[in-house]
Design brief:
Belongs to the prokaryotic molybdopterin-containing oxidoreductase family. InterPro entries: Asp_de-COase-like_dom_sf, MoPterin_dinucl-bd_dom, Mopterin_OxRdtase, Mopterin_OxRdtase_4Fe-4S_dom, Prok_Mopterin_Oxidored, YoaE_C. One of its GO terms (molecular function) is iron-sulfur cluster binding. This is Molybdopterin-dependent oxidoreductase. By secondary structure, the protein is of the alpha/beta class. It folds into four domains: about 10-60, N-terminal domain of TfIIb, CATH 2.20.25.90; about 70-140 and about 345-445 and about 455-505, Rossmann fold (3-Layer(aba) Sandwich); about 145-340 and about 525-565, Dimethylsulfoxide Reductase, domain 2, CATH 3.40.228; about 585-700, Barwin-like endoglucanases (Beta Barrel). Helix content is about 30%, strand content about 20%. The chain has 25 helices and 25 strands.
Length: about 700
């Protein structure tokens, strides 16, 4: 049999929940399938490099276990007994159940639940158009970005920063709280270029010796949840040694004198006792920044997934303000460019008919919502019908046992639109098959970079799968709202309208021809040299934690979240984390795996083989004390539950710290329950979020 040959190269964008949003070149084969995916070399952020898991995307899109037919449950929930039904029957059933829920309890009994399985603006966000048209329960999207964005915004007043391509022009690249090799490969592309061409030093701040830390010139392995203490000590040294840029501070910051006085006691020795880092390492890091004006801080999400995460981000981004790194090309800081793109999604989302009186439900607290917690339900009716798109809450959400108990309710109808039989799909009443990104039209914007990128349909999907957009449109027709503005348009029409409304007069066709649009602001704007985005133009060392705006501030009905009164006035370490105690002597982080992206790719053989299986990293000292050897089966637990998995003894982690990489499917664990049994859903101060890496646990043989 002849091997299929490439006959064309198509152009697209990676759709997955990653800041890079890589521009892609895709081999189209003569049998209508795809071959290898590569990074677009002429995109100056992607620069020809993509992660291995996306390069192997043919393995996923042509997977033998891909969902291809609508399936209706015929046995008990979770028993795995299904019958095939037709698409019209499946859509009729969803509409019937939604109408029944509305009649019995009101429209808020229906909860369309979605997130970032695709980052395409049409296929991801179109479900909100149906939500608003029908006055279904709103969703407070708290699970991913809230602590990081809240902390950054508290200082800068906008979600933008130095051009991430400037990393290549830096003399010192600080990669703080993100395993970029595994999760943002392009950060390493530009950092490696700076090292090769400029002799730049790479500093990595993290909690274990991950793949990124192994590439560092200076690796700082601190205790989880102590990043703000390190940041404070760096700033203390700057003031102590005359390395603080006092002219910059006077011109661009709100209270440098107050900050200096506050930091007087935040010495490297003080930080060493909190972080577990030797004071000498902290001094060396501070000295490196002090003699390197072009120091670029690339601040990630991982270190903010603690109960003091917003404070940690604000403290870390305060460091380049004290040293004045923002003045220089190749210096300053970057976290997300989500403010720069100027794309108005109102038509896609149906924002014109959004009713602010409709309740919001916290995405991270889905377990409490579905098990009837009155506070989580905001005093409203129970949720009795759901459509789930682009997410896998039975696996990825905190308090997993509570989530699954809620999904198993006999009086709850759940329809899941998916590509594979995920843990959530297994608990559904109806599963309908979804397209993948190369099989539909969409548009993407890169929070971790600076481009709007088009993702046009490149290959035909299997005849029996449907787009998210199709499902939303067909349900709108059955539910009587298809005449509302925004319905009845194709994906291309919605993209074209949005682009033209944003000043891109050529619309869809021009973007297809150009492939992407560079939206990076000019140097002065990106580096806040004309002022930070607060009314006084000053960087805020003293944020108004609950009184000012934020990128994803909870609706008024939810208000400030968590122990917000305990947040510090100036950057500081604050003990809001789950500290270890006698009953729970270990701190557990649930870090990303290199071959998975959240729960995506956990179904493909190549990724599974490379990851090996669920494992728990433990330091040799702890293993000896516990009388355990490499490969032993252990249980770890806390009041939320317990999980069994295999031990990996390694000095990659610090004593007292346990790390589990990857979101393996629940069924891959020995007892059929995944790692998020152990993670908490209590909201993080001040504006919510899930502290996935902040768990105290016990360990037993």
């Amino acid at each position: 049999m002849n091997k299929p040959l490439p006959i064309a190269i198509g152009h697209s964008a990676c759709p997955h929940d990653c800041p890079s949003t890589c521009a892609l070149d895709v081999e189209i084969l003569d049998n209508g399938e795809i071959g290898r995916l590569r990074g677009a070399e002429d995109n100056d952020y992607t620069a020809g490099v993509i992660c291995a898991k996306v390069a192997r995307y043919a393995e996923r899109i042509h997977h033998a276990k891909r969902l291809l037919k609508p399936l209706q449950r015929i046995g008990e929930k979770g028993a795995g007994e299904w019958r095939e039904i037709e698409w019209d029957d499946a859509l009729d059933l969803i509409a019937e159940k939604f109408l029944a829920a509305e009649i019995a309890h009101g429209s808020e009994a229906v909860w369309p639940y979605q997130y970032a399985g695709t980052m395409g603006l049409v296929q991801r966000d179109g479900i909100h158009r149906l939500r608003h048209a029908k006055r279904y329960s709103g969703q407070f999207d708290s699970i991913c970005t809230n602590m990081a964005w809240t902390g950054w915004f508290a200082g800068a007043g906008a979600m933008r920063g130095a051009d991430p391509r400037e990393i290549a022009k830096s003399d010192c690249v600080v990669i703080w709280g993100t395993n970029a090799v595994a999760t943002q490969v392009n950060v390493m592309t530009h950092a490696a270029k700076a090292r090769k061409e400029r002799g730049a030093k790479i500093v990595v701040v993290d909690i274990y010796d991950n793949a990124t830390m192994k590439q560092a010139d200076l690796a700082l392995k601190l205790r989880p949840g102590t990043d703000a203490a390190l940041a404070c000590a760096l700033m203390h040294v700057a003031f102590r040694d005359g390395k603080a840029d006092r002219d910059y501070l006077a011109r661009y910051t709100d209270d440098p004198a107050g900050l200096e006085a506050h930091l007087a006691s935040r010495t490297p020795e003080w930080a060493a006792s909190i972080t577990g880092l030797p004071a000498e390492e902290i001094e060396a890091f501070a000295a490196l920044i002090g003699r390197t004006p072009k120091t670029f801080f690339r601040l990630g999400y991982g270190f903010t997934r603690q109960r003091n995460g917003a404070v940690a981000m604000h403290a870390a981004m305060s460091v380049p303000a004290v040293y004045g790194n923002w003045r220089h090309e190749g210096g300053g800081a970057f976290h997300s460019n989500s403010d720069i793109f100027g794309l108005d999604k109102s038509e896609i989302m149906g924002s014109a008919y959004r009713d602010p009186s409709v309740r919001h439900l916290d995405q991270s607290r889905i377990g409490a919502v579905l098990t009837g917690d009155r506070e989580a339900l905001s005093g409203g009716p129970p949720v009795t019908a759901m459509l789930i798109q682009n997410t896998n809450p039975a696996n990825v959400c905190p308090e997993q046992r509570l989530v699954n108990r809620g999904l198993m309710r006999d009086d709850l109808f759940v329809a899941v639109h998916e590509q594979f039989m995920t843990d959530t799909a297994k608990l559904a009443d109806l599963v309908i098959p979804a397209t993948m990104f190369l099989e539909h039209d969409d548009i993407y914007r890169g929070g971790g970079q600076n481009h709007i990128v088009l993702g046009p349909k490149l290959v035909d999907p299997p005849a029996t799968v449907r787009t998210n957009h199709f499902v939303v449109e067909e349900l709108a027709r059955r539910l009587g709202v298809s005449r509302h503005a925004g319905f009845g348009l194709t994906e291309r029409q919605l993209i074209d309208n949005m682009l033209k409304a944003g000043g891109h007069v050529g619309g869809y066709d021009a973007l297809k021809a150009g492939r992407w649009i560079d939206k990076q602001p000019d140097f002065e704007t990106a580096h806040f040299l004309s002022g930070f985005a607060w009314p006084d133009g000053k960087f805020r060392f003293k944020p108004d934690w609950t009184g000012s705006m934020a990128p994803n501030r909870p609706p008024e009905s939810l208000g400030p979240q968590g122990p917000h009164a305990a947040l510090p006035v100036f950057p500081d370490h604050v003990e809001l984390i789950e500290t270890a105690d006698a009953a729970h002597p270990y701190r557990l982080a649930t870090s990303p795996a290199r071959q998975f992206l959240n729960s995506t790719f956990a179904e493909t053989g190549g990724s599974r083989q490379r990851e090996g299986g669920p494992a728990l990293m433990i330091h040799p000292e702890d293993a000896v004390r516990e009388g355990l050897q490499d490969g032993a089966v252990v249980s770890i637990g806390n009041p939320r539950g317990e999980v069994r998995l295999t031990l990996k003894v390694t000095d990659t982690v610090k004593p007292g710290v346990l790390v589990h990489e990857g979101l393996w499917a629940n069924g891959d664990f020995l007892d059929g329950e995944g790692i998020n049994v152990l993670t908490g859903a209590d909201p993080v101060a001040p504006f919510g979020g899930a502290a996935f890496h902040d768990n105290r646990v016990w360990l037993r043989a």
